[in-house]
Amino acid sequence: MAGTLAEFFELDEHDTDVSTEILAGVTTFLTMSYIVVVNPAILSAAISVDGRTTGQTIQMLAVVTIISAATATLVMALYANRPFAQAPGLGLNAFFAFTVVLGLGVPWQTALAAVVVEGVVFIALTAVGAREYIIKLFPEPVKFAVGAGIGLFLAIIGLEAMHVVASDPATFLQFNPVFASDPIAIISVLGLFVTFALYSADIPGSIVIGIALTTLASYAAAALGYSAIDPSVPALDGVFLYTPASLTGQTDVVYSAAGYDITPLVGAFLSGFSNVDALGFSLIVFTFFFVDFFDTAGTLTGVSQIAGFLDEEGNLPDIDKPLMADAVGTTVGGIIGTSTVTTYIESATGVEEGGRTGLTALVVALLFLASLALVPLAAAVPLHASHIALVVIAVLMLRNIVDIRWNDLSHAVPAGLTMFIMPFTYSISYGIAAGIIAYPVVKAAQGDYRDVHAGQWVLAAAFVFYFFVRTSGILAGAL
């Protein structure tokens, strides 16, 4: 069996083995399994199904989340042979639920129709090589900065989940003001340093071991009666307490057999095409398309940089194959009832554990499918425990900045903006946009405008148009 897997996934050519790939797949799954709970929680605010309770709807959405993630990741494994995992994307699901459905009053079936159309367009563009061509137009400094930018982005996400940082009305971000009395913060930081120690000692599976130890400590603390303190809320008499469940990451949703019947969601997008305003629908599709395109491109480039997949020009060879996995996942997801599927930055954790082939992705897909047997199982690992892995990877991804020519402003400015904007706007695509817009401007200012490809000017103009559509209120006016 091991020999067959090694031959199919070309493990020897990628200098890896079955055990390393399995460990990498488990690591990636543990760091992204939160989406099984988070995606339904977000989408259930906008999607309601006649005859189903809220709890049953949430479970239905959990099931379709798992199916879409497993489908896309299986395509990634078996067709692209890359160690990238996919699932419905955060941010895109919030745009779906809160902006399109709740904010603009678009029926959720129509929003699903937009996702399906986006997926079909992606499949067509990928098949003819258009997406690969566009990604190759990314300026070199942007490609080399994406990895470090994603690292900073991961650090913010991880530190927030660990309760090390918290929101602040004046500075937007601050150190947790109740750190010393917050069990999540204390357990998370201890777990982080244990993981760093294990990694530095070259202990195999150090990230998984760190997550497991942090999880066990969290459940032990919850059993002893400790509760999580919310660092984002000014303390009243010193504390704001959650229930012990908030410390372990468990959910209060009761799962039932009826929640596994997803037939009301499957094909619901078809009714969404009726009475559609052409302009408004097109703008929604455009927004889904734009964010997913550049999020996926950025993630593939950044994670590939860690894995050593990029060529000398910063391009990922045969990138059309992982892009096709993303396109198929998005189309299937829209058909069965969930928002846009994209490549996950958490894939970097598995790559750092040594994952180099589709066998890593196959393990992730199989673990998603296994979680169908007991949906809450995927949420057994607390968010703060799994996210210590993101901080570990964030530190390691910063090593990539040595590839940037910092003494050349035409590289330093777009690279720096790419790195800064990603974490501060909570968006990979916004970071890429900043770098792509800055590159031709700086080049032209230096008198080197002839070095700028015409397509790079077009990309910059497209991003400016996107920001106009996204922030000017034109979407609301068109619907």
From TrEMBL:
Whether Transmembrane counts among this entry's keywords is yes
Location(s) in or outside the cell: Cell membrane
**Gene Ontology molecular function, alphabetical:** purine nucleobase transmembrane transporter activity
Annotated TM spans: 22-46, 58-80, 87-105, 111-130, 142-166, 178-199, 206-229, 265-291, 359-379, 385-402, 414-442, 454-478
Q: Which GO terms describe its cellular component?
A: plasma membrane
Which keywords does the record carry? Answer: Cell membrane, Membrane, Transmembrane, Transmembrane helix, Transport
Membrane is among the record's keywords: yes
Q: Which InterPro entries match?
A: Azg-like (IPR045018), Azg-like_bact_archaea (IPR026033), NCS2 (IPR006043)
Query: How does this chain sit within the bilayer?
Result: Multi-pass membrane protein
Task: Give the superkingdom in one word.
Answer: Archaea
Q: Which Pfam families match?
A: Xan_ur_permease (PF00860)
Name the family the entry cites. Answer: Belongs to the nucleobase:cation symporter-2 (NCS2) (TC 2.A.40) family. Azg-like subfamily.
UniProt protein name: NCS2 family permease
Q: Which organism is it from?
A: Haloarcula limicola
